[in-house]
Automatic annotation (TrEMBL):
InterPro entries: RFX-like, RFX1-4/6/8-like_BCD. Residues 4-148 form the RFX1-4/6/8-like BCD domain. Keywords: DNA-binding. It comes from the Eukaryota. This is DNA-binding protein RFX8. GO terms for molecular function: DNA-binding transcription factor activity, RNA polymerase II-specific; RNA polymerase II cis-regulatory region sequence-specific DNA binding.
Length: 148
């Protein structure tokens, strides 16, 4: 029984690593093309600035209305930081380090226990997936050039 559990965990980890490897290969092709990155950034800014995202309120204001709300908008900060970096660097290691730094600062460090870390991590993952789905949907519905 314990061997079966270990095998299952190993298979899941291997699957995630394979998915990440495939995603990195795909992204390398995009990130190595300045024109594709420029179009992607333009489309992202258009989707965000024109209010096409199907999310409550204007979450992308330059100045958050209440600084105490920032921890509740970790995913927005991560997206904005990644977009800012894309303008100057397309090195995937730099982008991943940015994401890792934000997660360290806003999810891992504030956690005082394993249970709290699990809750913060799962909340972030849910909101991050929701945000990326909303961005993808908006880009698809608005025929963004980078989404083809």
């Amino acid at each position: 029984s314990s061997s079966l559990t270990e095998v299952t965990v190993f298979i899941k980890r291997l699957g995630r690593k394979t998915d990440l490897s495939n995603m990195a290969k795909t992204m390398r092709g995009v990130l190595n093309s300045n024109s594709k990155v420029t179009v992607l950034l333009s489309d992202l800014h258009a989707v965000i600035n024109q209010g096409f995202l199907d999310v409550p309120g204007n979450l992308f204001e330059e100045n958050f209305r209440n600084p105490e709300e920032l921890p509740n908008n970790i995913e927005l900060k991560c997206l904005k930081d990644l977009m800012a970096l894309l303008a100057s660097s397309t090195d995937i290691r730099v982008l991943l380090n940015c994401m890792a730094s934000n997660l360290q600062a806003f999810v891992i460090q504030p956690s005082s226990s394993k249970e709290e870390l699990r809750k913060l991590a799962s909340d972030f993952q849910l909101r991050w997936n929701f945000l990326l789905s909303a961005v993808s949907k908006a880009m698809t519905l608005n025929y963004a050039g980078s989404f083809g």
